[in-house]
Design brief:
The complex is a heterodimer of chains A (354) and B (474). Chain A is mostly helical and 354 residues long. Chain A contains 19 helices and no strands. Chain B is α/β, with parallel strands linked by helices. Classes of the chains: A mainly alpha (354), B alpha/beta (474).
Chain lengths: 354, 474
């Protein structure tokens, strides 16, 4: 088995708590990585030295929404000469850019990650890069191309892959944005994705179902999703409550209680989501929620160097369209001016959620 | 197995071989190539006053059945003295005189004064003389060519459809083929339009007009009966794609042709289009395989406006955009890459929603692999502008092509002023050529491969669908 594929597979296993299987897979062939997996607790001290350590450090920062630190670490490892680490780091930079709203730059990094993975036959990373590209396209309001990317991602995933349910859920998000003609397909896909044992997809799929119900006026979908979602702070739960708020608003009912529950259940690392929710709160005329003091607004995603310009990937027309709207999609969410009226502000949620 | 000019002729001057390789592309039939190929190392000035060693000329018979005289690589000293162009003009005039009729003389922009092509029929004389005196003839070739035009019947003569295009192509070149009849359900109206014998019964018509070849341009699911009549009558066929709607049907056709051999050419015109022939030549000489190949084919019909024809009727169309337009894209991809595709993923759309069972898809996006090359086919009947676009990314080279030009890293490498008509003529010429050969089962393997990819794509769309069902019919 290829070393890069081996390492990525082991890391993926570790992410879903299958540490023993990951170690068995490595079987002494990657000492530093084994050490990392043995002590994997998102503690920076456990990252091995060198480019792999930098990449791991980058991902650790990323998962904690410390985008500037993550990008700094990824930048150190993205040109290390080891294809799988390069591709993985480029993917990390793409994810940082995506989360912070620098979509065009993120797409460039994503294309680079995919190009390296394609050239060196790193199938797992290829699938991850295509999935990340789908997310960028989704946020960039290109749902059809996003759905195509997720279909390709699904086709690239090996049978039984741990991320299948997640990708199905993302594709359902894309379909749900395509309008009334695709709602039935989206609803079915959400219901299927909501039953993927062994993954953390269920709550996100239910959240998508709730939003679909809120948009299409099917209150039973919202109620069912809320009933099936475990209580407690989680993005999925918060989105279900946001959907309920939206439904109440559309019915001219009081939405403030639902809204406050949503705010309480939205974890603090979702910094831009929280910022949007504050703006929507103001637009709805709720009593203002105290601003987050922890939001780091200084991050600007790095742009790809001209030497790293990617070979044009087949989803080329979407890139072309995104390039046309460069100003909107490459400023960062921090610079987005939130609309003052509830409807316009509601449409801006598409940067973050289904 | 295809080979390159360099492989076919190891003794050839390398620079000339490279030039030829770019111009001709890979050679499909080694034996035929070697039999027909003649090298002329000297060209005669037919005025007779001066005989000059001009450079290199090649007589070649590629698969389209016409004869080409390639004049290239004029000696630099002659070029400097201004003789090169005059020499070419003189040889061209000689060829015109010696041929019963020259079809066309072309100057390709890239070659400018280096390359002219003379397509000729009936026979062609090319002489080469050495020495100072005209009577010292060293080499001489006479090529007999086809004496009579092909008598053709078109089945499915919708003036706005492909049948109409074929009729126009036949009439554009009366020396190559002659329209002697049309078979159409609306025979009377077609007869008034075309002024030829028309009948709704193909078997009756074939017996009456003594046709040698038939062009079949029908709805996808309507070919079987017409094809059977042609095979029984022993006439050559130019069969519009697809040859069949399923592998089962195609294999059945293959068995029929084994039992009763019959000449057949498939109407995949892009295989004869000058731009794509040039592009294939570029790829054949490239050291590395492309990383990506993107083919975008969009008809540009207004969004949500369905044409009222058989293409939206599942029982006649047998499939949607993927089988209809996508077939061309897949065939072109396989033609350019010279290897079969393997489908990775396929999305089928009916306008802006995932296509469902029973619907005719209006758009398809297929991602496939061909060795190290990732192929993306973007097929859409609606939306946006009408476009046909091919893009190849090599390591540090971006090659783009359409029906008019080929650009390499933004620089025009090839341009042609003849467009779709040339591709249709090429297919007709190929039909003329296969008609002259002893009956034998046609080579269907390319088309078998394409249809297999179509089936793979439909199947793949079903497998990962989960709400997006494949839309295959027939």
């Amino acid at each position: 088995m290829d070393e890069g594929f081996l390492a990525i597979t082991a890391l993926r296993m570790a992410e879903v708590q299958r540490h023993e299987e990951a170690l068995a897979l490595l079987d002494g062939r990657h000492v530093a990585l084994e050490a990392y997996i043995r002590t994997r607790n998102r503690n920076l001290q456990s990252a091995p030295p060198g480019p792999m350590g930098d990449a791991i450090e980058g991902w650790t920062h990323y998962y904690s929404a410390r985008y500037a630190s993550a990008a700094e670490a990824f930048a150190r490892s993205v040109a290390c000469g080891e294809p799988w680490i390069e591709s993985w780091s480029a993917l990390g930079l793409a994810k940082c850019g995506t989360d912070a709203g620098f979509l065009k730059r993120a797409a460039d990094w994503c294309a680079l990650a995919a190009a390296i993975a394609r050239r060196f036959e790193l199938q797992e990373l290829m699938a991850a890069a295509i999935g990340a590209l789908g997310e960028i396209l989704l946020r960039g309001e290109q749902p059809r191309e996003a759905a195509e990317a997720f279909t390709l991602d699904l086709a690239l995933l090996p049978p039984g892959a741990a991320y299948r349910g997640r990708v199905l859920c993302y594709r359902a998000h894309a379909w749900s944005r395509l309008g009334p003609g695709a709602q039935a397909a989206a609803e079915m896909a959400y219901r299927i994705a909501a039953h993927t044992p062994g993954e953390e997809t269920d709550r996100y799929a239910l959240a998508g179902l709730a939003l679909l119900g809120a948009e299409s006026g099917k209150s039973n979908l919202v109620d069912q999703a809320l009933a099936d979602t475990p209580r407690g702070p989680h993005l999925g739960r918060a989105v279900c409550l946001i959907a309920r708020t939206r439904l109440a608003f559309r019915r001219s009912e009081s939405s403030e209680t639902w809204f406050r529950d949503a705010w309480a259940d939205l974890p603090s690392e979702y910094v831009f989501e929280r910022r949007w929710l504050q703006a929507w709160s103001a637009a709805l005329g709720h009593s203002l929620i105290a601003a987050d003091s922890s939001i780091d607004t200084n991050f600007v995603a790095p742009a790809i160097g001209s030497a790293d310009a990617h070979p044009r990937w087949p989803l080329v027309c979407a890139f072309d369209r995104m390039a046309d709207t460069d100003d909107l999609y490459d400023r960062g969410f921090d610079a987005v001016a939130w609309a003052p009226d509830p409807e316009s502000c509601w449409t801006q949620r598409s940067f973050f959620m289904p | 197995m295809n080979t390159t000019i360099q492989e076919a002729s190891p003794d050839l001057n390398p620079s000339l071989a490279a030039l030829l390789g770019q111009a001709l592309g890979p050679i499909g039939d080694m034996e035929r190539f070697n039999r027909a190929r003649k090298w002329v190392n000297w060209a005669v000035n037919p005025a007779g006053a001066t005989v000059v060693p001009g450079g290199v000329a090649v007589v070649e018979t590629p698969a389209d059945g016409t004869w080409y005289l390639w004049l290239m690589a004029v000696r630099p000293d002659l070029e400097r003295r201004g003789i090169g162009r005059a020499l070419f003009d003189a040889v061209e005039a000689a060829a015109r005189r010696s041929c019963a009729r020259c079809l066309r003389v072309q100057t390709y922009r890239r070659w400018e004064r280096m390359l002219r092509i003379v397509k000729a029929r009936r026979w062609m004389f090319v002489g080469a003389t050495l020495g100072a005196r005209n009577d010292q003839v060293k080499e001489e070739w006479v090529f007999p060519l086809r004496p009579t035009p092909l008598r053709m019947v078109v089945v499915g003569a919708n003036p706005e459809g492909r049948g109409g295009e074929w009729i126009a192509a036949i009439r554009r070149d009366p020396g190559l083929a002659e329209l002697v009849g049309v078979c159409d359900a609306d025979a009377h109206r077609r007869a008034a339009w075309l002024g030829v014998d028309c009948d709704g019964d193909l078997a009756v018509l074939l017996g009456r007009v003594k046709a040698e070849a038939v062009i079949l341009a029908l709805p996808h699911t309507a070919y079987a009966d017409a094809r059977r009549i042609c095979i029984e009558a022993g006439v050559a066929m130019l069969h519009e794609k697809p040859l069949a709607c399923s592998m089962t049907e195609l294999l059945k056709l293959h068995d029929q042709l084994i039992e009763k051999p019959c000449a057949m050419v498939v109407g995949v015109q892009r295989r004869s289009h000058p731009s794509y022939v040039f592009l294939r030549g570029q790829l054949a000489t490239a050291k590395v395989r492309p990383a990506t190949l993107t083919i975008r084919m969009r008809l540009g019909r207004p969004a949500n406006e369905c044409p009222r024809d058989w293409r939206v009727d599942p029982s006649l169309a047998g499939g949607g955009a993927l089988l209809d337009l996508g077939y061309h894209a897949m065939d072109l991809a396989q033609f350019l890459l010279d290897a079969p595709l393997q489908v990775v993923a396929c999305n089928l759309w009916t306008f802006n929603a995932p296509a469902r069972e029973g619907e005719i898809e209006t758009a398809a996006r297929v991602v496939a692999r061909c060795g190290p090359t990732w192929v993306c086919l973007d097929i859409d009947r609606h939306g946006g502008e009408k476009v046909e676009w091919v893009e190849l990314a090599l390591e540090d080279t971006l090659i783009c092509a359409n029906r008019e030009t080929v650009t390499i890293n933004g620089q025009t490498a090839f341009a042609c002023d003849e467009r779709w008509e040339a591709a249709l003529q090429g297919r007709l010429a190929e039909l003329v050529m296969v008609r002259d050969q002893p009956p034998r089962p046609p080579d269907l393997w390319d088309q078998l491969g394409v249809l297999q990819v179509v089936e793979q794509a439909y199947s793949q769309a079903r497998q990962v669908g989960l709400g997006q069902e494949g839309t295959r019919h027939g």
